[in-house]
Amino acid sequence: MLNTSFYSLETLLFLVFTGLVLLGFYLLDLRYDNHRPTTIEDYLFKLARVTQKSEYAIFHEAAKKWPVSKVKVEEDFKKYLLEQITPYYVNDFIRKHKHYLDNWRTPNY
């Protein structure tokens, strides 16, 4: 009987400790998100989640208003994937929709 109460106390302490560690990570994540400036890549990711389209589709949607060929969009998207460089037409598209995205709350995962 003494043996089982020791294990349950040990289990309880382990669960409390694990919960505190997870809470600490959560609070650090909130603190980091509040102080980090939002990048174009963040807005592009958020726009993809809100519209339920891929970032690839957003590149093509953004290029419709500009005289950009599909081949150029393909090259720019590859460059974005490799180097995180967004072309001017995507930057313009994000800038025009930025005020909607700032008001839209999405979870981090």
Describe the structure.
The protein folds into 2 domains: 1-36; 37-109, no CATH class. It is built from 5 helices and no strands. It has helices at residues 2-35, 40-51, 55-63, 70-83, 88-103. The protein is elongated, with a radius of gyration of 22 Å. The mean pLDDT is 86.
What features would you highlight for this structure?
0% strand
Short recap of the structure:
The chain is an all-alpha fold. The chain folds into two domains: 36 residues; 73 residues, no CATH class. The chain is built from five helices and no strands.
Walk me through the topology.
Elements: H1 2-35, H2 40-51, H3 55-63, H4 70-83, H5 88-103
Helix pairs in contact: 2-5, 3-5
The rounded distance between the terminal residues' Cα atoms is 44 Å
**Percent strand:** under 5%
Instruction: Summarize the helix and strand pattern as letters.
Output: HHHHH
Outline type: elongated
> How many beta-strand elements?
0
- Poorly predicted ranges (pLDDT <50, ≥5 residues)? none
How many individual domains?
A: 2
The structure class reads mainly alpha
The profile of the biggest β sheet is: none
Helicity, as a percent range: over 70%
